[in-house]
Amino acid sequence: MSDVSTIDYQRVSPKYIVVDLVGYLISGVVMTAASFIPLLAFGWSLGWLPPVAVGVVSIVMIALTPRRVRAIGYALRDDDLVFRRGIMWTRVVAVPYGRMQLVDINRGPLARAVGLSELKLVTAAAATGVVIPGLPEAVAEELRDTLVTLAESRRAGL
Amino acid sequence: MSHAAPPAVTHLANGEWHRLHPATPLLKGGIALVAIIGFGVYNLRDAFIETLFGGGGSGDEDPVSWLLGHTAFWVIALAVLGFLLLLVAGFYVSWRMHTFRITDEVVEVRSGILFRTHRKGRLDRIQGINIARPFIARLFGAAKLEVNVAGQDANVQLDYLGSAAADDLRREILRLASGTQAAAASTEPTASGGGVVGQRVAELLAPELDPHEAPLESVVTMNLGRVIGSLLLSGFTVAVIGVVVAVIVSTNLTGEAWFLFAIVPGLIGGASYYWTRFTRSLRYTIAGTPDGIRIGYGLLSTSNDTLPPGRIHSVQVSQPLLWRITGWWEIKVNRATKSTTTDGSGQRNTTILPVGDRGDVMRVLALVLPGLSTDDALEMLQRGIESKGGDDGFTNSPRRAAPIRWFSWRRNGFALVDDAVLLRKGAIWRELVIVPLARLQSVAIDDGPIYRRLRLGAVKVHTVAGPITPSLGAIDRADAESFFETVAAAAVRSGSSDTSHHWRAHEAATLSTPPEPTQ
Question: What is the pLDDT confidence band of residue A147, given thresholds at 50, 70 and 90?
Fold first, then answer.
């Protein structure tokens, strides 16, 4: 069995950067606009601080998007699937195939426009929370079939 | 105990459709109806006496005698009577249409008059069987049986059944679910004398644990002093004292008394919390049976659960701060089911030892984790609970974790014992979490900027939702990685060799039945 730091991860599609970027852009603009409320409505003298802070955070988040997307990875090992994400706060999860209860494929409107899907693994534990975003549709479906077959062959009790 | 002849009892599990206890409508909603009728009769009585004996008209006319004087009254009375008859008929029909059956594979319930519901629970997914006897139902000799199936709100309820029939049915369901084909040795019903009344009294006074059901005596004894002491020393008491002190101080400072009234609802709530905890803990029993652990509670309304082996997803031994003085602990578990039988304190059948000393804890752990019975494992559990840390078989946090775990870094660590993960935490609020590897769903390793700077990591073990969230922070990054690898691999091994969904299938196999194909 390989070491955590040396697992050979599959990356998600670079097109996912666009999807993620648009998402952060929209939420950044909305949040920045909302943070103008104290300034406009109450005229506080320090009212310019929240929009500046929110704006800067949004810009940093947007700037880091390519790195963040590159940090998402998954690997199919002999007996389990390993998923990792995050650059500042990283998270690595291993899900044994036998514990998967179902595999979901979801497509948001933006992701569908660029032909991507996300794959959600559900175990009996809600905390598992593994969602692999940014998979090309064909890959997602193939992966789902592989996972379902693997889960079937190693089915364990709860 | 049993008033029905044994064949008549076991036939409940013969795969045919059966009805519930005839008193079911009365117990489920009829009590309220009886109360309303009683209230009406009580009010009518005065008016009735007045019209009969022509009592002197008191100045203020009550609405009932006013009604009597009108013709509309009779229309209303007829309508009310019709409504009552309809209600009774409805209760009767709903009882007739509420049927259940138990086959070798599933337990099924059909109910409803207009909107039919049909619920099936697979026997090999049973997480436990609960028999509850609310006080009034106990007086009638009835009991609720609830088959807990994995999932939110997925339980199959049979309310109400005859008290003895419920016990027998549980035994039958567990036998079918366990995978043994041979019929379990049926227990001899004890001779009951003194007719129905004598039998009810005997049932009410009987010990919580039927000696026929569990060969072992309850492994833990509760005494009044300990129950009261545990409540007085609980975290809740500390909060209550805090609030009382705050109120006294603020009343003195502001000179206003309204604070005193503001806490009255809180005091009532607190008293009911103490009362439910108290009545629950007082007749607590836990014992091992061939079909799992049986946990019983309750003074007036009783409730008991049977948990087949392998249905406990994680176990937490913890110690509220003040219990340290007396050396008491409590044990909670995560289960894959949410029981609808709640109790006032919101414990939801997850506290399996409300209070106990170290000996009690070890005895209960031996019951709930039969896999950890070797001397080494017991030694590790002991250390996990009480050790101050250091070089004791646990992989603990390094010294550089001290800024994050001020007091507990020596003790904060993990160990892998046989087929379970032990996570030990806390120097002030001591805690040990045990997760059987076969029940573990996934494992994760987290870190953040501070952890990375200190070369630390946090591990999380995911199990079904419940009061316990097994996780361990601030351990050495390399240790965390090796934990991740070892646990992930061990979970796969242990999951594939686990047969607890048919926990007695191997016994059946030795009785010349072909074994089930293992995957």
Answer: very high
pLDDT at position B208 is 57
Q: Are B442 and A155 in contact (CB < 8 Å)?
A: no
Query: What is the distance between the alpha carbons of residues B347 and B473, in angstroms, rounded to a whole number?
Result: 27
Using a CB–CB cut-off of 8 Å, the residues of A that contact B are: 1, 3-5, 79-80, 82, 88-99, 123-128, 130, 153-158
| Sheet architecture: strand order including B117-122 | B18-19, B99-102, B106-111, B117-122
Q: CB distance A89–B446 less than 8 Å?
A: yes
Strands B285-289 and B292-297: antiparallel
**C-alpha angle with apex B466: B463 to B467, nearest 5 degrees?**
120
Considering Cα of B479, then B481, then B487, then B489, what sign does the dihedral take?
negative
Among left, alpha and beta (phi > 0; psi -120 to 50; other), residue B468 is beta
Which residues of chain A lie closer than 8 angstroms to B438, CB-CB? 156-157
Whole-complex ipTM: 0.88
Ordered by start, the domain boundaries in chain A are: 16-66, 74-153
pTM, to two decimals: 0.81
Report the alpha-carbon distance of residue A50 to residue A56 in Å, rounded. 10
How far, in Å, are B206, B237, B291, B334, B473 from residue B341 at the CA level? Answer: 22, 26, 21, 16, 34
Fold designation for A74-153: PH-domain like (2.30.29)
pLDDT along chain B (519 residues), means of 10: 41 81 78 74 70 55 62 78 86 88 88 85 85 85 86 79 86 83 47 58 62 59 86 85 85 77 81 84 83 84 85 92 90 79 52 89 89 87 88 90 91 90 92 93 92 94 90 93 92 81 67 43
Pick from B464, B469, B485: CB nearest A4: B485
Q: Alpha-carbon distance B453 to B117, whole Å? A: 58
